[in-house]
Specification:
Layout lengths: L1 H11 L6 H10 L6 H11 L4 H21 L3 H25 L2
Helix pairs in contact: 1-2, 2-3
C-alpha cells in the first residue's frame, strides 16, 4: 500500500512516477524499498491519469448515498418484522420452558 501512497505523493508534487522516484519516497519514509513492487506499481499506473481517477471516484462516492436514500427497500422492512416476530416467539418459548 505504501507504494500506492508514494505514487500519489509523486503525482501531487507534479513529479514523474517512475521506479527511482518511488524508491526514494519509500526510503524517505524510513522503510526498506522493494524494487519489484516499485516496478509493479509503475507498470500498473502507466497511462493512468491519477487526478482524473480520483475525480471520478469522488463523484461516484457522492452519488452512491443519494441513490441508496432515494429507494428504501420494502423488503428490508418485511424482513425486520419477521425477525422481530421470531425473536418474540423464541423468548416466549424460553420462558415457557422455565415454568413447566
Amino acid at each position: 500500500m505504501e507504494y500506492v501512497y508514494a505514487a500519489l505523493l509523486l503525482d501531487a508534487a507534479g513529479k514523474e512516477i517512475n521506479e527511482q522516484n518511488i524508491l526514494e519516497v519509500i526510503k524517505a519514509a524510513g522503510m526498506s524499498p522493494d524494487e519489484a513492487q516499485a516496478k509493479a506499481i509503475v507498470s500498473s499506473l502507466k497511462g493512468v491519469n491519477i487526478k482524473e481517477v480520483i475525480k471520478n471516484a469522488q463523484s461516484v462516492q457522492a452519488a452512491a448515498p443519494q441513490q441508496a436514500a432515494a429507494a428504501p427497500g420494502k423488503a428490508e422492512k418485511k424482513e425486520e418484522k419477521k425477525e422481530d416476530k421470531k425473536s418474540e416467539e423464541e423468548a416466549a418459548g424460553g420462558l415457557a420452558g422455565l415454568f413447566g
